[in-house]
Amino acid sequence: MAARFPEESTLEDLYHQQQHLTNSDEGYDVTFADEQLDTNDMTCVICLFILREPHQAVPCGHRFCCGCIDKVRQQKGEKAPLLCPIDRLEITATFPDAGRKREILNLEVKCTNIESNSPSTICNWVGELRKLQEHVEKQCDNTLIHCHLQCGVKVYRSNANFHLQNDCPKNLKDCKYSIIGCPFKGNDERLSTHLSTGFDHHLFLQVLRQSEDIDAKNKSLDEMEIKFRTQVQDMEKRMIAQSKQMKNSFQKQIAELKQEHETKTDQMMAQSKSQEEIIKTLQNDVTEKSKRISSLEIFSVAPKCPFAYVIDNATEELQNARERNTILYSDSFYCLHGYKARLKIHLDGITGVPVTKGTHLAVYFQLLQGPFDDKLQWPMPFGFITLSLSINEGPKAIAKQKILRHTESDEVRQYFVKPVKRAGVHRGFRKFLALKELPEVIDNDKIKFEIDVTPC
């Protein structure tokens, strides 16, 4: 099937027919490149066009456009029985036929504007049906489009530039001599004719405008000259009288003030210098002591190694890790006389790492920014980091322990450098414990982790 545009069709009729391609809920009204193609099994039994968003009916198996079957439902009502127009069987359900949709969109069709009234050449475009809409809307010269200056006229895309240059009422331009009073407006061609024939008129307007400007400026200059001359004369009289009275008085006061100022300035500079040195010394001392006191107070009450972290609601946290990929962080603690750190725990493995997600429990040691970082040695020197896990007691007890050993390799050292953000890079074991080793029943619903960091 192909779009037919009779010779008596108006541009408005053609425009609405072209909109059918994208705005219709019915099937595609197109002509296939293969004119021998059998279209019976890809035709909607309601609108008789090529299927658009095909849905297959149950139990009869006939296919409809999604928009067509929806219209029928709306017309009959949601509760009324829906009968197939081919075999009159009741339709109990429909479902999208993605395979048939793909087959239809893969077929090659001709441009729907192939027989339009455009003065341009016939469009010979052939391509996949899925690309037809983009071709008609953005490429085809035979498509009717709105003038982009919104003058209300619809033109073929091939004639758009001609319309803008010659017919569009919103593309009229002012004469370049409008600033001197020329009222003419027109398109490029008429402007060119106007400029070539209107030289004398424009010259007259230019001379007239310049003459008016000169008269106005001369009048303004005369007024300003009279005003300034009067002001200058008045100021000269006042300044002569005032200068005679103030000259002697100022000279005497200046001498006295100069002497007094020099004396007080010398005194204040000496005193200020002494006070600034004292204040600076006291401030530095107070600041340093405050920092030391604050750091010592924090360190004295903060947890230290060996450090234990207990998960009290282990069953719930394991469920959260499976469903929402939650990560647990222990409270911060200090090790090796000042390094601040914490434990990072993935109870259900690491998201995005198939070898651990859902199969292993992962445990990491992670350095944090601390109050003593500027006084500590970096990378952190250590001998061993021992990570332990314990669940239950007695015969049902499960215990796991792994050790990180210090090496001088750059690969290991990068995990123990001074943190530049709140938390540094973590280091540990992504397969710390296989989840299948967890007991079915966890006593008191608790899992205990312990860490100890020993020096070199």
Describe the structure.
- It is flat, with a radius of gyration of 45 Å.
- It has helices at 11-23, 66-76, 98-106, 132-138, 160-166, 188-197, 199-301, 314-324, 410-413, and strands at residues 54-58, 63-65, 93-96, 108-110, 126-128, 144-146, 154-156, 173-174, 185-186, 307-311, 328-329, 333-335, 339-346, 360-368, 384-391, 398-405, 423-434, 447-454.
- It is of the alpha+beta class.
- Residues 304-453 form the MATH domain.
- It is found in: Cytoplasm.
- Its main location: cytoplasm.
Question: Top keywords for this entry?
Answer:
456 residues, alpha+beta, Herpes Virus-1, Apoptosis, Tumor Necrosis Factor Receptor Associated Protein 2, Chain A, five-stranded antiparallel sheet, four-stranded antiparallel sheet
CATH topology annotation of the domain at 307-455: Apoptosis, Tumor Necrosis Factor Receptor Associated Protein 2, Chain A
Main pleated-sheet profile = 5 strands, antiparallel
CATH architecture of the domain at 307-455: Sandwich
User: Would you tell me the overall average pLDDT?
Assistant: 85
Taking pLDDT < 50 over at least 5 consecutive residues as the criterion, the unreliable ranges are: 1-17
Based on CA inertia axes, which overall geometry fits? flat
**Cα separation of the termini:** 85 Å
- Taken in chain order, the helices and strands follow as HEEHEHEEHEEHEEHHEHEEEEEEHEE
Q: Please report the total strand number as a whole number.
A: 18
User: If you compute it from the alpha carbons, what radius of gyration comes out, rounded to the nearest whole angstrom?
Assistant: 45 Å
Output the CATH class name of the domain at 307-455. Answer: Mainly Beta
Q: Approximately how much beta-strand content do the residues carry?
A: 15-25%
CATH superfamily annotation of the domain at 307-455: Apoptosis, Tumor Necrosis Factor Receptor Associated Protein 2, Chain A
The helical percent reads 25-40%
Structural class: alpha+beta
Please work out how many helical segments DSSP would assign: 9
Subcellular location: Cytoplasm
Domain MATH: 304-453
GO biological process, one term: regulation of canonical NF-kappaB signal transduction
Domain TRAF-type: 135-182
